[in-house]
Amino acid sequence: MEHNKVVLFDGVCHLCSAVVRFIILRDPTGRFRFAPLQSVVAEQWIDSAGVDQNSVVLLEEGQIYVKSAAVLRILRELRGVWPLYYLFVLIPAPLRDAAYDFVARHRRQWFGQQDSCMVPTDEMKNRFLGGHVPR
Fold first, then answer.
1. pTM
2. Cβ-contact 13, 107 below 8 angstroms
3. Which Pfam families would you find in this protein's record (predicted)?
4. H-helix segments, the chain
5. Rounded to an integer, what is the distance from CA 9 to the centroid of its chain?
């Protein structure tokens, strides 16, 4: 099975790591793969797209989505009621991204961070590209 949806996330942020686990639980067919923004694997995409470390990134079919656009595109692919949240795409992107940026600025203060990137469990390892190796 080809996987053309890759989520890049802040691997040391507790909130971001929890979001990855949330996605995995609601994506039983394994459409999404993951890599920490701090990994060598993610470095090629980050540098070429000019993405900062405060943004979740979705790489989907050759396109790069960041911030609220990435989150909404991820939610619309998950099992359960989560695709309904894609309706927030009707809110102008600058407003959505302002809310996203507010949470991103405070996420480590509110939820904490780890000293190194999240280490996937044995069950999750096949969902990660290049694992959890920091740059």
1. 0.79
2. yes
3. DCC1-like
4. 14-25, 40-49, 67-75, 93-111
5. 4
SS3 48: helix
Contact 79, 28 (CB under 8 A): yes
Range of lowest pLDDT (36-40, 94-98, 117-121): 117-121
> Which tokens belong to 57?
């990134």
Instruction: Using CB atoms within 10 Å of the CB of residue 95, give its burial: 0 to 12 exposed, 13 to 18 middle, 19+ buried.
Output: exposed
Helices first, then strands: H and E counts in the chain: 4, 4
Q: What pLDDT, on a 0 to 100 scale, did the predictor assign at position 14?
A: 77
**Token output for 50:** 């000019």
DSSP, res 88: G
Q: What is the pLDDT of residues 37-76, one digit of tens each?
A: 877 777 777 766 666 666 788 998 888 898 999 999 999 9
Residue 134 pLDDT: 36
Phi, psi for residue 104 in degrees, rounded to 5: -60, -40
Rounded-to-integer distance, Cα 129 and Cα 8, Å:
10
At 48, list the tokens: 């070429």
* Pairwise CA distance, residues 41 & 133, whole Å: 9
Which pLDDT does position 82 carry in this prediction? 94
